[in-house]
Amino acid sequence: MKVRVADITEKEKVLESRSPATDYPTLMQVQEDGACTFLEPIDVTLSMVNEYGHIRVKGRVETSIGLKCSRCLSDYTADVKSNFTIFFTRSTGSVEEDEVELAEEDLLSVTYSGDELDLADEIAEQVLLEIPYKPLCREECLGLCPDCGSDRNINPCACAEKQATMAFSSLRSFKVKQ
Ligand SMILES: [Zn+2]
Ligand SMILES: [Zn+2]
């Protein structure tokens, strides 16, 4: 998603776009790696303003992804919603200043050069931040039984109980032997 710098003035400009995840190479890479599946296009709303020599972009990204629960291995769907603010400052050409840095209050500060702002990387980055490292279908997911493999959310098995009883009886026999 590219915006001409000259089009961004002191008057706030709002842009909306809806484009398929295939437009974002980084997102496609994540999908290929199996972290998630993009189920909906990426909805983006940006409001941009040129103030005090830098460009402030307030944005919102929304989409829907398919994930696999890391505990019970079931597939589930999650909504991705993220708000962000990025300050674009024109590059002075020095390498140090060109590095992206996380400023205070989680505001991103990015340098740009040329006549256009390319927001695709920043948008993809915001989506990536929302993809859980250890997905859970729900906070209290019971996961699969390590002994019999059954999904304890659907089919609670007695393995844990049995083990506790066995541990208890072996402890008891141990005491008897003493
Ligand atoms: Zn689960
Ligand atoms: Zn079991």
Question: What labels would you give this structure?
Answer:
two-stranded antiparallel ribbon; single chain; 178 residues; alpha+beta; binds zinc ion; 23% helix; 9 strands; 4 helices
Tell me the strand percentage band.
Answer: 35-45%
Structural class: alpha+beta
- The radius of gyration over CA amounts to 25 Å
Helix fraction by DSSP (H/I, runs of at least 4): 10-25%
Q: Bound small molecules, which ones?
A: zinc ion
Largest sheet: 7 strands, mixed
Tally of helical runs: 4
Rounded mean pLDDT score: 87
What would you call the shape? elongated
State the end-to-end CA separation. 76 Å
Q: How many β-strands, per DSSP? A: 9
Low-confidence stretches: none
How many structurally independent domains? 2
